[in-house]
Design goal:
With about 400 residues, the protein is of the alpha/beta class. It is built from 15 helices and 10 strands. It folds into 2 domains: about 260 residues, TIM Barrel; about 100 residues, no CATH class. This is Aldo/keto reductase. One of its GO terms (molecular function) is oxidoreductase activity.
């Protein structure tokens, strides 16, 4: 395994982390005795395999159902100084409710302390305020740190880049969990801000939210050859030294295997990546033309400023992926989460867009005349059954 300094925490962080939202039995809290023996055995075997590989950062959350409780049956069996444990707790208006959630996490995990506590889902200005205002959640964290129950505090986010940077610039957090990978690089400025503050940088879900790369369309396989799409994306992310670790959402012990192929390639990423990156870019230009690829994002409004609360940027991004790279399944899943994802995946689909006047909100876009038709076309292309977030399943 390779390790990187995790910002000012000074932790020796493996470049891969074992994410804990896919091996648990239920998305709801249940008693341990309701977990089937084979499900618990799979989780324990997965964690043991992870640690054997040197992936000693085990990451979960209060919102991941039975994950914490099931981990509590195995984590105490390891020497405590040989594992790095992260859990995450959502911010609350009532800081006492936040503390109660943390205490439940600590009890579930059967540990004396947590190495990394993430305030989970600082996606809006209101949730940031819950976290940093006097007497808020961070003040609770500081007391828990003084009691030795938490070592370092960070935050996770699915929010817009400006909210992420605003949170980073408070200089109150030791690390950040955020989305950033080849198909979605909009948070690079946030990573640069985190680097300036010497924060650890943890990438969320690079193989799932990064494109369902465990089940890629043939076009991605061809574009990424001789690498698999999963290894290509790992290599792309880790070729940036500002990125410290990628979360691998393992559901079984063998889920680490493909990712491990990345380790021997990192020293020659500068040779391997350029021809693959050129093929990706050319595929997009061949589909849409260079002007669209370079300017489609320009002047797009935020969903809050758009009639119907349509998330225009996300809809057009998903259209690009579906048409340029045959990423139809990924695009359909993400598209049909719009309207159901709350602040975790905000805004609405383009349903009924033909009845809306978008001229004012698109006045700064060089493609203002085309976009309403493109939104209508995308809705027909990707519309399907509503999709819920995993934690709502």
């Amino acid at each position: 395994m390779l390790y990187r300094r995790f910002g000012r925490t000074e932790l020796k962080m493996p470049v891969f982390s074992c994410g804990g939202m896919r091996y648990q039995f239920k998305w709801q809290d249940i008693p341990q005795q309701q977990v089937p023996a084979d499900k618990q055995a799979n989780l324990e075997t997965t964690i043991k395999r992870s640690v054997e590989l040197g992936i000693n950062h085990i990451e979960t959350a209060r919102g991941y159902g039975s994950s914490e409780m099931q981990l509590g049956q195995v984590l105490p069996k390891f020497p405590r100084d040989q594992i790095i444990v992260q859990t995450k707790v959502g911010p609350k208006a009532d800081p006492q409710a936040f503390q109660a959630d943390f205490e439940k996490s600590l009890k579930n995990l059967q540990l004396d302390y947590i190495d990394l506590l993430g305030i989970h889902g600082i996606n809006t200005a209101e949730l940031l305020d819950y976290s940093i205002r006097p007497g808020g959640c961070l003040d609770v964290v500081r007391k828990l740190q003084a009691q030795g129950k938490i070592r370092f505090v960070g935050f996770s986010t699915h929010g817009p880049t400006d909210i992420i940077i605003q949170t980073i610039n408070t200089n109150q957090f030791d690390y950040v969990n955020l989305h950033w990978y080849y198909i979605n690089q909009v948070n690079w400025q946030a990573i640069e801000a985190a680097t300036r503050h010497d924060m650890g940088v943890f990438i969320i879900s690079p193989s799932d939210k990064g494109g369902r790369l465990y089940d890629p369309p043939q076009k991605l396989v061809d574009l990424c050859a001789p690498l698999s799409p999963m290894v290509f994306n790992d290599l792309f992310c880790l070729s940036h030294s500002q990125v410290h670790t990628l979360s691998l959402g393992a559901s079984k012990p063998s889920d680490f295997d493909e990712h491990l192929k990345t380790l021997d390639l990192l020293h020659k990423a500068d040779e391997i990546l350029p021809p693959i990156l050129a093929r990706w870019e050319q595929a997009a230009i061949s589909t849409f033309g260079e002007n669209w690829i370079k300017t489609w994002r320009v002047g797009l409004p935020k969903h809050e400023k758009t009639p119907g609360n349509i998330n225009i940027r996300t809809v057009l991004w998903l259209r690009n992926l579906a048409l340029a790279y045959d990423m139809h399944e990924y695009a359909k899943t993400r598209y049909n989460l719009l309207g159901n994802g709350s602040h975790w995946f905000p805004g609405n689909k383009a349903e009924g867009v033909e009845n809306l006047d978008l001229r004012e909100c698109l006045r700064n876009s060089p493609h203002a005349e085309r976009i309403p038709d493109l939104l209508c076309e995308t809705h027909k292309l990707l519309e399907g059954a509503k999709v819920k977030r995993l934690s709502q399943s």
